[in-house]
Design a protein that fits this description.
There is one protein chain. The chain is mainly β. Helices cover 3% and strands 41% of the residues. The radius of gyration is 29 Å and the shape is elongated.
Length: 500
């Protein structure tokens, strides 16, 4: 065995998941048809146009059907501008808002319509005809409650249909189309107590609790006695149930420090469940979060099977690669995949993903902070399962440790080590880490003496997927049943021949 690192697992279960209730917010700022929208000419050849001149409203880009520019002799004209499909599942109140300038002319029609069945049929929200609404300098901002038509529907589309009725029409300017559920507020983060990452700090008996309250709607909201619930389950249980009063700007948030404190002086993992309950809330799925905090670990052996919660481990995603996932393994992991180990941490990359360039910055999983002051022969072990195909020599799982609060990191071991990485997952990738095309058919325990960490007061581990290309096979890798102990029997071996 040799000096190696421990593994990290990851993020708080739902830590800052933001289920925004602004389902559509389109300002046509690219002066082009937005992604997911459609622009269809039904009669004539003219569709909607996207411009920034003449100035309309704030002077940004907008959509317009300019019948006047076609000339009086070009009729009939009818065109439809249609939104992407919107999933309004769970929304109990839905609003449509847009800014427009409709120039009314006899026999012309501007219809705002909605479909909940993929466009098979349409219901009218409003028709604009002979009455002009708005102007270039002062667009009319129109709001429609479409709850009766759209709330709870999984496939909603809205279209703006212009028709000149076979006569010379004028124009319909359109901008700032929004579909949202409001009012809606929820908790998006546990700001304090923060995750322990620095050296020399720990939680105490009077920890302040600060939560982030998010307004998911586009309009400012004033809250009076909004109930907040904080339940802490751990070595010491706590409950706080205050109320919040204040104003939160549209799509804004406030950090609210609760009256009272929680006791986290006993070593272990504390699971926080934080929620709020606005009585008129239009969407309940984003009301709360569940996150964990781990104290500094000073007692060994340390074991973590991740059954009750994520163990206070933290995940940080990487752009274009993703993040680690917590929970039971899917059946694609084969025998003992979906059963037998309960919850674990895993990372998955679909076949064909990636680029032709070099290895990318990994999505990392960070452990709690360990105090190895009283250890002499620390030993790390854990179970692994999956496959990490080599991706042209780049793909591998890299395990590292830090002794200075994350300022620098040291890779543990190498793929050539027969008792560590290379023994179980195949070829040497050149980086040090789990790599190769050989899948693990079942959970396999690996272990390593991490003697370099003996006596160190501030140790943190992380594991990352260095990734370039998934190739024809998926990348599937899981970690479970971590154990760190002070081995009574020193174990020494030759790790490398340095000379010649």
């Amino acid at each position: 065995m040799k000096c190696a690192v421990a593994i990290t697992t990851f993020l708080v279960l739902c830590s800052s998941v933001a289920y925004s209730d602004v389902l559509l917010n389109e300002g046509f700022n690219a002066s082009a048809l937005p992604a997911g929208w459609s622009n269809t000419a039904i009669q004539g050849s003219q569709g909607w146009s996207f411009r920034n001149t003449p100035s309309f409203g704030a002077g940004t880009s907008y959509a317009v059907f300019d019948d006047n520019a076609l000339g009086a002799g070009v009729t009939p004209n009818q065109a439809v501008l249609r939104t992407p499909t919107l999933d309004l599942t769970g929304r109990t109140r839905v609003t449509l808002r847009y800014a427009h300038y409709w120039f009314g002319v006899e026999n012309t029609l501007g219809a705002v319509e909605i479909s909940t069945n993929g466009g098979t049929s349409w219901s009218t929200i409003v028709n604009y005809e002979t009455t002009t609404d708005g102007s270039l300098a002062a667009p009319s901002v129109v709001t429609h409650d479409i709850t009766a038509l759209a709330a709870g529907q999984a496939s909603v589309q809205i279209r703006f249909r212009y028709s000149d009725g076979g006569q010379a029409g004028r124009f319909w300017y359109l901008d700032d189309v929004q579909v949202f559920a409001a009012p809606d507020v929820g908790i998006t983060a546990l700001v304090a107590p923060a995750i322990l990452a620095a050296c020399g700090v720990n939680y105490g008996s009077t920890e302040a609790v600060t939560v982030r309250i998010q307004n998911f709607g586009p309009d400012s909201i004033t809250l009076t006695n909004l109930p907040i619930s904080v339940s802490v389950n751990g070595p010491i249980n706590s409950n706080l149930n205050p109320t919040y009063t204040g104003t939160i700007a549209g799509l804004g948030s406030v950090d609210f420090t609760l009256p009272g404190t929680v006791n986290m002086s006993a070593e272990g993992v504390y699971a926080f469940t934080v929620s709020t309950g606005l009585g008129t809330d239009a969407f309940l799925a984003n009301n709360g979060i569940s996150v964990t905090r781990s104290t500094r670990v000073v007692t060994f052996p340390y074991t973590q099977n991740f059954e009750a919660n994520d163990g206070g481990w933290q995940a940080v995603s990487a752009a274009g690669i993703g993040t680690w996932l917590y929970g039971p393994l899917p059946a694609t992991y084969g025998v003992d995949g979906a059963e037998g180990r309960g919850n674990s941490w895993r990372i998955e990359i679909a076949p064909g993903s990636g680029t032709g360039g070099g290895g990318n910055e990994p999505p990392y999983l960070y452990s709690p902070v360990y105090d190895f002051t009283g250890t002499t022969n620390p030993l790390l072990s854990f179970e692994i399962k999956g496959q990490v195909n080599n991706g042209g020599g780049w793909n591998n799982i890299r395990v590292e440790y830090s002794l200075n609060g994350g300022a620098s990191w040291i890779t543990v071991g190498s793929t050539a080590d027969p008792t560590w990485y290379g023994r179980y997952l195949g070829i040497n990738t050149g980086f040090g880490g789990f790599g190769g095309n050989t899948p693990l058919g079942d959970w396999t325990r690996v272990e390593r003496a991490v003697c370099a960490l003996a006596g160190q007061p501030c140790v943190r581990f992380r594991v990352g997927l260095v990734f370039r290309n998934a190739g024809l096979l998926p990348i599937e890798f899981a970690i479970d049943n971590l154990r760190i102990e002070n081995s009574p029997n020193p174990d020494v071996m030759v790790e490398a021949i340095l000379s010649p």
